[in-house]
């Protein structure tokens, strides 16, 4: 069965609207959003296959949002966080409605694919190790101070001078 994205965006307008959802947990039938997902999936797919299709639709919307940005903006959290959050909420809401666990292997794979596609070239200076010279200084300083402190304690004790 071949279903176009434009048809699904009309049918499942909630997914195509980036401002939907409150991030809550629903079961099928508890909210109108779940009725839409569940009735679509029960009529056309197995739940896990349908979930995979709906995750692709969530990713399609994420890709579209990212496509409207310059690639230089992809590394700016302020510019990307809305689309990223919408994708997260989309996949989580659909999983909750279909009574599937979240996160799951499909979502994890999709997040890795998104990170590889959009964020691989982003600098991560804040997460890098300091230069080797700084690490050496930070490691060697206490190592060198321990023998010096031991020698001072021994000399003070040996001379009988117990005053500080």
Automatic annotation (TrEMBL):
GO terms for biological process: angiogenesis; calcium ion transport; cellular response to hormone stimulus; G protein-coupled receptor signaling pathway; intracellular protein transport; protein localization to plasma membrane; receptor internalization; regulation of G protein-coupled receptor signaling pathway. GO terms for molecular function: coreceptor activity. Keywords: Cell membrane, Disulfide bond, Membrane, Receptor, Signal, Transmembrane, Transmembrane helix, Transport. The chain crosses the membrane at residues 134-155. It is found in: Cell membrane. It is a single-pass type I membrane protein. InterPro entries: RAMP, RAMP_sf. One of its GO terms (cellular component) is receptor complex. Residues 1-21 form the signal peptide. Belongs to the RAMP family. This is Receptor (G protein-coupled) activity modifying protein 2. It comes from Sinocyclocheilus grahami.
